Amino acid sequence: MLSFIHAGDVHLGNPFTGLSKNLPKAFQDAVADAGYVAFDRLIQEAIQQQVDFVLFPGDLMHGAGQTARLQATLVKGFLALKEAGIQVVLSFGNHDYQAYEGVKNAWPDNVYVFGQEVQEKILMTRTGERVAFVGFSYRDRSERRDRLVDFPVRNESIDYEVGLYHGAVGQVGDDYAAFSIEEMLQKNYDYWALGHIHIREVLHEHPVIAYSGNLQGLNRKETGPKGALLVRDSGQGLEPTFLSLAPVRFETLEMTDCRSFLDFIGQLKQVEFDSTTLLSIELNGDIPAEMQADQADGRLLDKVQLALPESGKVWPIHIALSHKQKLVKPAFAQMDFDQAIRQTIEGQPLTANLSDEVPLPIRDYFTSKEGQQAVQEALEELFSEGGES
Amino acid sequence: MRIESIHISGFGKWSDVTFDFNDQWQVVFGPNEAGKTTVKAFILGVLFGFPKGRKAGNQLYVPRSGAQYGGSLVLSTKKGRYRVERLGRTKSTLTVTALDTGLEMPNPEKWLADLIAPLEESDFRQVYSFDESELGAVAELTADDFDQVLLSYTRPQAQRFLKWAGDREEEGQALFAQGKNGKRPLNLANREYQKLLAERPAEQEKYSRYQELLANQEALDEELNRSRTKEQSLLKKLSDQESLTKAWPLFEQAVKLKADAGSKKVNQQVQLETVQEVQRLEQTGNWLFEQQQANQKEIDKLRALLAQPQEKDQGQVMVNDSLNQLLNIQIKKQGLVQQLTNFAAQFDHGLPKALSKREQSELASSSVMTTTLGGIALVLAIVIVAVVSAPLGLGIGIVAAILLAKAYRDFQARQLIAERYQPFNMAEAIEKQEAVALAWQQQAQLQSLDQEAELAKKQLADNLVHYQIVDGEKLATWSTEQLVDWTRKWLQSQESTDTESTSRRLNELLTTGQTLAKKIDDQKQALSQILSEYGVRELKDFYQLVNEEKADEATREKGQLIHEQLGQERYEQLLSLFQEHGAESFARLEDELKRLRQDLQAIREDERGQQQQLANQQSEMKQLTADGGLAQLEQKLANQESDLKADYTRYLAKVLAKSVVNQAFLGQEDSLSKKVLEQASAYMAQLTKGRYQELELEKGRLFSTEDSNESDSKRTFQTAELSSGTRDLLFLSLRLALASTLHAEEPLPILIDDALVHLDEERREATLALLQEVALDQQILFWTFDEKLNTGQAINLLEY
């Protein structure tokens, strides 16, 4: 019976974003190793579960994968799989398309890499079933063509047909190989191993069309356990089960009505975490004035970090205070400050206040919605002081 | 809202005093130092809190009387009448009581704040409370500053927010300078980031280095493998050579043994079976000989037995012997008894005791002589006594007595012997002495024979029992006669059978002897036949021959063993070496060994070099893979980016705060400021008696339009162009317009403290008129030292 691991968006070598250079050493180390540890665990799991294949439907690597550690890790892993009689089926996605010409040549012969056109590859399981894999590698950082149309309809002469697809649901012409579930179902495959979206999700059952999500969360929006899908033929078709593999987790904790900073820290310390966790905290309800002031001054996170042990499992990386009440409109004002803030941000480019000296990614950030949103929130926090310094 | 009355418990010079403000236009009169400003400060204090701390210029108004600090106001609002009481200076308590219900408000501070909301204390102080110094300061201001001050008065909170935002902007600028080469934290962080970014190409280089190393590693691996193969083959050669060299002494020995074995004549080989046959024959011969000997001995024995009386068996013999012994003793005893009986019969009194030596000597010496001698001596004694001398005669008389006594005793003894030997006389008795002694010996012999007989009987009985002829118990009951009789009968019954069986046995033995002799002949013949085959006649020669062969065999076997130990291949190698080089062979072996060892060392050094190179390379690769390389750098960059984003977000918020305030307050003309300006225009027209009709605000500047009396033409002046007197009026108009426009729902009282002293008479009159007009809509408390205003409704502080 067929079994394989579906690991989309491994992003090996990808740095975590949204962390500070002041991260404690232990967390720095954990972060530096996280992707590699997760990948090693994936390999171990494949060997232990004695699967037939490991599928990587795109974005296995960060960029062209041109770092020594990354390549050493991949080659080591692939060789271990080879020794265990496990074959690797791989396509490149929008992040690692550049690797197509380079690194794949250094990989052992149990790794099958899809070309830049849709291809079908028939491989054998340990027990002799024939499995057809269909997929393609990205040629560029985006793929606007309709790729699904090139996927053949299920080959009835073989035992299983599995599609590897790096893309997102959408309209043809979108950046990332847009597809529709309906069209996929028409191909009559046994399983669709999707990549590109980092959130684990089953888009369709019987047959399964699923994103495995990424192997290791990379920023505070990629929360919860991360890993890959172990897929087995249950007799009623191919069924995925989640394998939790990521050694470091991003989590978001919502807290309500803290009476004081100490109360808040006390509550925070009560929360238990299983694994190394980079924590974002959202504070709702009544927030003590001291904490609001600290937040407006950018000190709150520092204070929380200081109050927690560096040796613990959890490290707070972000704190947001929710503004339940709108900022009041002061007497004689034309408009309330919320509106004034929005108009100010919309009215002029933020980068006008940033000289060329500011690194390009930072300037880019403040031209993005995300950066503007951050400034807006900061201004709201600042004005929540109500003009009292 | 109106302030109906105030009650001061203790505040500055005032204690326990109540002022009722009955009028909308309420003049409070008092000369300097009468406590006017104290009353105003009290009202503001109750509303917004008493002055705190020892800040410069802060007057604390500690009651001089020592009465309780504070007091209350009675306010009438649209919602009703309330008493607002604030007591205590450092820790004041505020109480607001609804006078209609008598209930206390739960949150008095909030109640107060709500009362004037959205205005705040600062607004109230700026707009509703003004004094002489403010108006005085107006004259000092430059035209631009005047605009700003006026504007700030039109938007009282804006100024506060602007100032606050200005502080934020400064903080922001402390974080980052727009100019190049700034040393502020974010400028430094930028540079740190750029520096890190500059490391990226080098990190990317590292990957090409890694690839290079990877390719190189394959070549090195191959090279090393070649070296290893070479080493292996050399090691094999070396080991072969070593074993050859080591084997040399053995080989030499083998060669020598072979030579030895070769030098001996080739013997006819004695088969092991033959040796075993000979040994078997020899053993058989020996055995047969022994058998023959034993047989002959038995024959001799039987012949002798037949020739002699029958031999009895042991028991029989012993019984017979012991019986004979017993019988012999009995016969001897009977003989002795007979002799003794016969001899003793001669004597009347039985066998007499033999004479002792003394008796014999006495008998021989004869008593006659003694008697005679005694008699003589007696006579002599009598003689001597009578004749010679008495003593001597006495002596001889004693001797005569002794002799006579002895003679008498002898006589008696002879009488006893005669009786013993009766019927024989003394002489006969002496003659018979020899026979008597013999008889007594026989008597003793008889006794010892009795003992012997007892012993013999016991011996016999023991034998009978010992040989299990008679049961011991049964035998114990038998008398000697019974025993002897039974034994005799048993012996007679035993003797008859033996002779026959002996003859038969002899015949058998003779037959056996013949068979044995035949077998011995056969054996000898067979043996000699075998021996003759090997050219020997004696057995010992044969064995010598066999031993010699055995030694020969051992040598051959040892040679074979060595050969085997060496192995055919090695043996042949050594042999060919030996055949080629003879005695020099060993030296040659050693030379080759040395050469191989040198080769091995050389290849091992190569290998070490290659391994070292490989190890270096692997360590470099490990370094390249371990330090994370580009990924680590990118993680660092990402972290710095994240910090920079957060820091710049904060920076941008700070520097944009002012823009936001401007946006909120100054962005657009609005209805409120229009209303204020309209009201101010109306007041200005009234104060200037229609000269200035219209005030306008344009791009942050205030313009006043003058109506020309002469024509329809209007002239517009900037504030800077106005005379100082007109500016005072403009200021007043705006303030009053604000005070009457803001908070229109619940107009707040205006507190004016000697504000008109700078105005000339005409303007003051106009102003007072305006104020009283305004007071129709909202309460005005007017503090003044102007006697003219101290009219009936005025409160004269001098009266309190």
UniProtKB/TrEMBL annotation, chain A:
Q: Which CDD domains match?
A: MPP_Mre11_N
Q: Which domain of life is it from?
A: Bacteria
Entry's InterPro entries? Calcineurin-like_PHP, DNA_Repair-Maintenance_Comp, Metallo-depent_PP-like, Mre11_N
Calcineurin-like phosphoesterase domain segment(s): 3-199
What does the UniProt keyword field contain?
A: Exonuclease, Hydrolase, Nuclease
Q: Does the keyword Nuclease apply?
A: yes
In alphabetical order, the GO MF annotations are: exonuclease activity
- The entry's protein name is DNA repair exonuclease SbcCD nuclease subunit
Native organism: Fructobacillus durionis
TrEMBL record, chain B:
Record keywords, A-Z? Coiled coil, Membrane, Transmembrane, Transmembrane helix
The protein depicted here goes by the name: AAA domain-containing protein
* Matches recorded under PANTHER family: DOUBLE-STRAND BREAK REPAIR RAD50 ATPASE, PUTATIVE-RELATED
**Annotated transmembrane regions:** 376-405
Extract the SUPFAM superfamilies matched here: P-loop containing nucleoside triphosphate hydrolases
Please state every residue range assigned to the domain named YhaN AAA: 1-199
Q: Which residues form a coiled coil?
A: 186-230, 586-650
